[in-house]
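Query structure, 288 tokens:
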């Protein structure tokens, strides 16, 4: 089944209304919380350096009298992240981002179910030691009747997370029942730079987002695809290239065969050269 994987965004300036009281930034600061996964052996907010974690949130409209039309989302990750909405990439990860300046996204809604998926990367290039890592999000769902509904990390305990995640983890139909709930970061963390986030400057607008109600991809036999390959915890950088185990195995076999062929050719050339010398020895003439 073909599926669009990336959605271009139009960059605009954040409206002043979103920075004022009751706007998305104001509500984000007052109501959302820093969250992360429980890192065994480390005290929150500490997390392994240069590793990534996956987060998911599925929102479903339970009021049949209301029609969701748009969502406005503000998010940040210490250090950077990739954002997917209904399986579509809206924001690719970039290590040049300033995590203390959150981004604002606006996108239309086409169904009663929306899946937010974030690949958060604790990618501090200046250290290999454990350091603070966190995710913070607020989202406003706007309805056709002018009302709205808010989602927050922290207050909303339905955000889920996973350390090692399977391929397709960002897709709407992915089964996340074995994922664990996020954990709140301690209040002491807010006395650091986490408590001094700056106002957003960029508003990234998407023209369309596909419905979350999509059929599950199938294999050539017609059976549902399970996406059995497990994603690595290590951060893969600022691109979205993922090499599966099968592809990696094929690459290694190809390298081995190429090495064997080159070795055989070199051995043949050396053998022929030695045989030629034995058959036609060098003759040196001494001049008296």
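Result returned for the query:
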């Amino acid at each position: 089944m073909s599926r669009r994987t990336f959605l271009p965004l139009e960059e605009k300036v954040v409206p002043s209304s979103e920075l004022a009281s009751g706007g998305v930034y104001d509500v984000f600061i007052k109501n959302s919380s820093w969250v992360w996964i429980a890192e065994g052996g480390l005290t929150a907010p500490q997390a392994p350096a240069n590793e990534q974690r996956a987060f998911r949130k599925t929102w479903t409209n339970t009021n049949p009298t209301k029609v969701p039309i748009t969502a406005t989302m503000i998010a940040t990750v210490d250090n950077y992240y990739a954002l997917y909405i209904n399986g579509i990439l809206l924001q690719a990860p970039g290590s040049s981002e300033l995590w203390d300046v959150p981004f604002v996204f606006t996108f239309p809604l086409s169904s009663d179910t929306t899946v937010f998926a974030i690949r958060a990367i604790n990618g501090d290039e200046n250290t290999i030691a454990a350091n603070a890592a966190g995710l913070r999000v607020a989202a406003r769902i706007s309805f056709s009747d002018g009302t709205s509904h808010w989602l927050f990390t922290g207050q909303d305990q339905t955000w889920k997370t996973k350390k090692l995640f399977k391929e397709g983890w960002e897709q709407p139909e992915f089964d996340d029942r074995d994922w664990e709930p996020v954990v709140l970061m301690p209040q002491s963390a807010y006395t650091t730079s986490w408590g001094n986030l700056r106002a957003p400057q960029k508003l990234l607008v998407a023209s369309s987002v596909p419905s979350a109600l999509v059929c599950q991809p199938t294999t050539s036999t017609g059976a549902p695809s399970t996406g059995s390959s497990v994603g690595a915890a290590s951060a893969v950088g600022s691109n979205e290239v993922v090499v599966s185990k099968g592809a990696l195995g094929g690459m290694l076999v190809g390298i081995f065969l190429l090495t064997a062929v080159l070795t055989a050719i070199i051995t043949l050339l050396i053998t022929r050269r030695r045989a030629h010398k034995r058959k036609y020895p060098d003759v040196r003439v001494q001049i008296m």
